[in-house]
Design a protein that fits this description.
The complex is a heterodimer of chains A (about 280) and B (about 80).
Chain A (H helix, E strand, L loop, with lengths): L3 E6 L3 H5 L8 E5 L9 H14 L7 E4 L8 H5 L9 E4 L4 H18 L5 E6 L2 H5 L1 H4 L5 E6 L1 H7 L12 H14 L2 E4 L8 H14 L3 E4 L5 H7 L4 H16 L6 E3 L2 E3 L1 H16 L4
Parallel strand pairs in A: 1-2, 1-8, 2-3, 3-4, 4-5, 5-6, 6-7, 7-8
Antiparallel strand pairs in A: 9-10
Helix pairs in contact in A: 11-12
Chain B lengths: L1 E5 L6 E7 L4 E6 L2 H18 L5 E7 L4 H17 L2
Parallel strand pairs in B: 3-4
Antiparallel strand pairs in B: 1-2, 2-4
Helix pairs in contact in B: 1-2
Amino acid sequence: MFRSLLFIPGNNPSMLQNADVFLADAVIIDLEDAISIKEKDNARNLVHNYLTTSSVLPKQIVLRINSIDTVWYKKDLDLLKTNKINYLLIPKADSKTIIEVNEYLDTLFSNNNLDEIKLIALVETARGITEIDKFAENKRLCAILLGAEDLTNDLEIKRSETNQEIFYARSKVIFACATNKLISIDTPFTNINDIVGLEKDSAFSKSLGMKARACIHPNQLEIVNRIYSPSNEDINWALEVFKAHQANPNVGAFQLKGKMIDKPIIERAKKIIEKAKLFNLM
Amino acid sequence: MKGTAGSKESNDCLITIESSVERKIEINSIVGVFFYDQILKVVEDTLDEQELYNVKVIVEDKGALDYTIKSRLLTAIERMREDV
């Protein structure tokens, strides 16, 4: 489970050696867009030695590999042999991409006796959005991250401060994730100096149903963690509901402070409590 | 044959390796007073692992950790081997 995931360029020693101290629930070590073509080998070697020799690593590590139509992607996947990577972030995800990566992973795992791994689909093309319901059912998938920069580029439209142009894409990601019990992760907020804008947009994203957000700067983490955590008000409400339900476990529906409480609301309260415990909020 | 990898950014190092009649290692480090021997050992161990004896290595270090020095050297070696 995540609230925040921080992108770190795979070729940046300063960021890597501090990766475990950031407030992110997970770090995304990036071998793709943050690394120039000439530095792909340098980044992969650095990440390999970092993962295999560092005594302290972040609690959850995501590796963004290069896309499957490049010469680097299979070499990137060799880093799984370190057994230090928790999730793979698959760029330009669509049905074909997810199938091909899965087939390659099946072979890699059986030939090398490696631990299984979960995938995060990075949906950043029109095709990815169109096909999302098909590949969201994939067994290895645990989350979908919306990549709005590439998506709006694919659509030949500009990003705006209101983000109204990505409303449909956000909704598609949220519904596909809710249907398949995956974590929906929102696109990064790219203006790292606009903290007010980040807070406002993240609150809106959460209200739509996004469960987490990718970040591109450590200064975004505190706000993103706060917004995507259950609030104190939510936690107190959930505890009241849970206690009332425990007092009357055989009653299907009951009233609490004048409001009807039934199974879906009890389930929601349980999810809030589970999240609050996981993120040490109670 | 020559290969270079890394940068002069903080916590990184720039490593150059080229063919030579014997092994020569030159280390210029901002933390050389304290860590010269440790950096030298990382370089020598990595060259031994790669069975490279007739090379000249120049390390321009800006406070890189051991794994950074090793990975930059390995990339420089790969690039030297491709530089034919």
